């Protein structure tokens, strides 16, 4: 027959104190318990082998020290580029520092490849103290509902909501980083630099385009931007040739390898005839099967681990002091990578 598990009442009887006093000791409130009494309780815990229920302790303090992590897209990678992993590394590291557990939400309904944060999925968030949200494409109205509910959350990535809704976020400073990347071209003598990026209301693309246009105009140059969505890599190179561009700034990494290959097929050397910079993750192979493993792409690297850390840290601060003066918007600097795909243009 299994031995009976010791209880707080057993500890209290052995120490000659009330159960309330035992709770104070377990909850680390030394100012409310004298040192001698505290030691008697600790000795009794040791003798009885009492083990506190951590969930009950957390609930008694009004929180359960569980932080949710919700991603709008599947979190585990299926291709050769793992978008979420560095964010999760940072989130996990910071959660350990704060002594919190993480709960990954995976039961939310999926529509058109994206999870929906509504109905039961939104109700499930209530088992946590707050949630870190990640995703490339989100439903802004769902975020407005979370704010109206008073539920603590932080988005990884700058997000703006309609109206006056104030959404907490930790993002990367894409405006400054893109401006700095354009500076790499300018330092090498480029004057005709194009921007390739989707026409989108995504904040990350808007910020990149803003940084490009700002840097070009500051240099007295005319911005030339176009959406590659309906263009093949060969057609993008056609645009380069037609506009006599010597440099391309790619808003995202995915098309870099195919554009480089299409340029080579046209007899254009990268970077001498066409310099290319990738805005974000230049160290990641960008297309399945692309012979690009040895390319050191110029551009910038997103501080994804640090963004994950800062997002969880901000969330904890908002949970502990929701009406405080904590800065709810944080933009972190990106790391500029000079790489090997931007050089001086060929003399013409």
Automatic annotation (TrEMBL):
InterPro entries: HTH_LacI, LacI/GalR-like_sensor, Lambda_DNA-bd_dom_sf, Peripla_BP_I. Keywords: DNA-binding, Repressor, Transcription, Transcription regulation. The keyword Transcription regulation applies. One of its GO terms (molecular function) is DNA-binding transcription factor activity. CDD domains: HTH_LacI (cd01392), PBP1_LacI_sugar_binding-like (cd06267). Residues 6-61 form the HTH lacI-type domain. This is DNA-binding transcriptional regulator, LacI/PurR family.
